[in-house]
Structures are given as structure tokens and as C-alpha cells.
Amino acid sequence: MALPYSELVMEHFRNPRNVGRMEEPDAKAIEGSPACGDMVAVYLRVDEESHRIDDIKFESYGCASNIATGSIITELAKGKTIEEAKTISWEQATQALGGLPPVKVHCSVLAVDGLRAAIQNYEERHGLVAEEIPTDAVEVRRRLKRVMNPEVGLDLIRTRVVSDVEVSEGVVRVVLSLSEDSQFANNIREEIIEKIEPIWDVDEVIVEFEE
Amino acid sequence: MNQDSIYLDNAAATRMDERVIEAMLPYMTEKYAVATSQFGYSLGLASKEALDGARAILAGRLGAEPEEFVFTSGSAESSNMAIKGVGMALGEKKGRHIISTAIEDFPVLHSARSLERQGFTVDHVRLDEHGRVDLEHLQELIRPDTVLVTIQAANQEIGTLQDLDAIGAICRERDVLLHSDATYSFGRVPLDVVQTPVDLVSVSAHLLHGPKGIGGLYIRKGTPLIKWMDGGFQEFNLRGGVENIADAVGFAKAVELITPKETQRLQEMRDRLMAILLEIPQSRVNGHPEHRLPHNANVSFRYVEGESVLLHLDLRGFAVSTGSACFSRSLEGSHVILGIGGNHERAHGSIRFTFGRYNKPEDVDQVAEALADIVVRLREISPLGKE
Q: What distance in Å separates the CA atoms of residue B384 and residue A39, rounded to the nearest whole number?
């Protein structure tokens, strides 16, 4: 029987590494929500001197690839400094699992975001954060590189789906060259809102479709 | 599926009954002629007789006349034919308003959406928490330009049965046509078009241990429809193309083999499975507790996601279905669970079990045991539900 997942994904799904809750972590973060279906919690124990990740744990509410990508990022991050761990990309996570089906690549983005959010949480707790910069179209496009086009498993920017981005007084308008009736239209809309709305100076996100 | 697998997804497809295959075989080997007119050669007449016989059996099961039953390639086509057919036949004459529900299966949902793009308006009737239609709201929604009400007989996921008698009475009184997608209930829940005022009914063979690729549409005499497929004059000049006689014969045989006694047996297994599953903490039934398909169980488990459950069950040899977004082709959570006011979390954790002829009582205990273990394991690694 041909499962859609690689053997490595199945192995991490069946026997996830570093799974569970950490008591009194130095930092933690939860990405996703029950509403959007996938959730990853990441807990860190960081050496105060060297900023090295001594221990990392994750919890997952999601599908097989969510569990597997959560598992793999803990393996990739363990023993690295937080600066090194920040550079781990979803491409690396996906590769380390021997690939993911295109519609599931967004799971690895979520896992990597969970790790980065936990690191950010550590930096905030330890006064290591830079000031907040006002959001512009460039920043929005940068973040849209983290929203997947499930049809091909690559991001919206690379697949040239984003035709326009406007930012004005807290309202972000994203125009997609995509039919509103296309198979993944609703999913992409939700993912965009999920990535852009939490930005500190964004009040509203409007996603428009044009063929 | 290997021999040891336990298949509990009989609302997706069913194993064909050997007796159905046996009944079909002669129409592929010896009696392969096309169904000819009454003036044709003997071989063609034999084919025509077989087709007419199958039609009579299927129409009879619905209390209809044979000439009110048209064969199609499956209930997806039947629903397209009914909804678009009525829309196109009456759009100019009467109006462009259709009433449906938010929880219909995709053929109905998307046929209505397709008409919407052509200028029709589609309203959805309010549903209660179990997915049953609010009859008063239906009354309110009917307008002078309403051409069709399309409401399913039974829901594909949560199994809720609609009160078609009451819905039909309202439509009849207000002079509006009623179509019902009975794909999931046909054969298992009686429907008689003499008693129930319904004008169009979609049915299919593939969930009744019959072949895939054949279905039918009941069309009450005098119902306005456009010609669906241009071709010859087959299927009362509504659907052209060479008739699929072997599958039609298989469809009729499959329906003949469905008995109330068997359905009762499936219901007993279903009832027992539901009772065991509801003992798992933080679980709940989706759909109506009583007015539901006899062979459908649908339960949501909190804090776990359906695709993971499905994959773990698959690794242990069980086949089930889920309303989780991760499992769907569009990455969207079940529109049915969301349509009855459920949240995404409930959709993601919903698991559907549907029974068929080849299930045995021990399947219930085995799947329940495996599932209880899987839910515990997934909850251990879930960030939810621990506070």
C-alpha cells in the first residue's frame, strides 16, 4: 500500500522525539489554533551563558505531518544556539523528513514558526529584542513567503500568486491572482489572515481574489 | 485492503456482492448487444428486456412507475441533472430562486453554486444542532420565483435523516418542486414517492454492494427538465448514450439483496459501537441521536485530529473516515459539522464509521479498542485539554 508519506515521516509520526510538556521552561510558544486545525507548542531550556538550546520539547494537535515536523524541528534545534536555531527553515525541516506531500508543506512552516516564536519568547523574557518597526508592503510580502500554495507545496510569492499588497492605516489588502472558486481558495485566505493579523500594528486583513 | 482489514467506510464505497457480479456477467459476455427498439433483432431485445426489468425493480423500490426512473452514471450526475435541469427548464418561465441546506453533499452543493454563478439565488434553510431542517424557516424562504427546493434524505457524514414528508407537504402546498439526494439512505431507509411528495430523487448503486458508475434519478411524471445529454433517444429522450445494461442489472440485483433484516443487523452493530465510543471521555455524537441512518456512527473526540486517528487506525488495519480539514481535498474542515453550528475543532476530531454487509459483530469491539488506545496516545502529545 502506498502511503502519501515518506518512511521518515511515518517513523516520526509513530515515535515522535522530544514529545511532551516541559516543566518550568525558559521559553515557550504555541503556534496555530484549534480553529485553524493545526497547533504546535514548543518548550525550550536555554543555557543563559552560551544561549545554547539544552533541551527542547514539543506538543502537537494536528495531522501526521504536523506531528512529524514538530518532532524533526526539535531534533534539528537541540544543541544549537538560539541564533543558529533561528535560521532553520521549513525547507530544511521538510528535507530532513525526506519530503512532504505538497498539500502538507504548510505543516513544516507551522513547526518552524513554533520554534522561532519560542526563541522570540526567550529573547523577550531576557531583554534581547529590537524595537517594533511599522509594517509595510515589503514586510507583508516577506511574511507571505511563509504561506503555502497547497497545490504545489511552494509559497505564494514564489508561485507568483500575490498580485498586489497594500498597507494603509492598519489595513492590509492582499490581492491574489486566483479564482475564488479554486480548490484551496478558502484555505489560503485563512492562512494569510493567520500570518498577517497578529502583527502588532495590523487591525484588519482583506484578501481579494481576481482571475 | 488486505484480507484482515476491517472496513468501516461503507458510506464511501462498498465491496460488491458476488451475486451482483454473477448477475452482471452475462451482459458483458453473451448478452452484450445494445438495447434495441422493439423492432430489433433478438439479442437486442434480450438486452432491452434486461434493462426494462432492472428499471422496474428500482422504480418499484421507490413506489414509482418504470418510466419515472432514468439511469445515470451515479447520484452525482443524478443531482446535477435534477438541479441544473429544473433550473434551466424553469429559470426563464418561473424564476431563479433555489432553496437548499448548507450540509448537502458536494454534487448538490456545487450544482446549486454553479446556478448561482449564472444568476440564480440560493438560500439555505436553518438547521437545528443535529442538522434537521427548520420547517418554519423553509416556509418563510419560499418565494413566488422559487423553482426548486433540494434537501437531502440523509446526511453523508452525520447520518441525520430529514422529515421529507413534512418538507414535501410544504413544497406541494406552495407549488414548488422538491429534489432529494437519497444516495446514503436508498435501500436502508424506506422512501415511497406515493406517500412522500417528492418530485426528484437521486440514488446510486455503489453504497449497496453494487457497482460504481451507475445511479438513477426518479422523475415524477410531468416534472419539467431539460434534455440532459444529447445523443440518441435513450432514457426517455433525457439522457443520450448507449445504456449501461450490465451495471443496471447489477444495481437492481444489489437493491433486491438489501433486506430490512440485514439493515437491522447493521443497526445493532452501530448502536453498540456508539455506546462504547461515548464512554471515551470528551466524546460526543454528531448528528441526530434517533433520526439517523441505521448504519452510520459519527463521533468527535476532543483534543485529537482526525487524520492522525485515521492513519493510526489504518496502520492497525481499520478503514474509517474523518471530517478533518487535513484529510479533505480542499484542506477545509467538514462543511457539515460547521453547517450545524459545530466549530473547527469538532470537525477536526470527527470520525465516521459506516457499516455494511461484510462487517461482523467482533469488528465493533476491535475498532473500539484500537480507537480508545489511539485517542489516549494522541491526547498525551496534544497541547490541548491538559489544564
A: 9
Q: Is B75 exposed, middle or buried (0-12, 13-18, 19+ CB in 10 A)?
A: buried
Q: What is the mean pLDDT of chain B?
A: 95
Q: Which residues, in sequence order, are CB contacts of B22 under 8 Å at separation 6+? A: none
- Looking up cell 478558502 gives A186
A-chain CB neighbours of B333 within 8 Å are 37
State how far the Cα of A111 lies from the Cα of A74, in Å rounded to an integer: 9
Q: Could A63 and B333 be called an inter-chain contact, meaning their C-beta atoms sit closer than 8 Å? A: no
The architecture CATH gives domain B259-381: Alpha-Beta Complex (3.90)
**How, if at all, do strands B6-7 and A204-209 pair?**
unpaired
CATH number, domain A7-125, options 3.40.109.10, 3.40.220.10, 3.90.1010.10, 3.30.420.40 = 3.90.1010.10
Is B215 in a helix, a strand, or coil? strand
pLDDT in tens, A63-94: 898 999 999 999 999 999 999 999 999 999 99
A&B contacts, CB < 8 Å:
78
Cell of B26: 452475462
CATH fold group of domain B18-257: Aspartate Aminotransferase; domain 2 (3.40.640)
**Shortest Cα–Cα distance, B331 to chain A (Å):** 6
Cell triple for B260: 430490512
Residue B94 has what DSSP assignment?
A: T
Instruction: Quick: pLDDT tens for B32-79.
Output: 999 877 778 888 999 999 999 999 999 999 999 999 999 999 999 999
Catalytic site includes residue A107:
yes
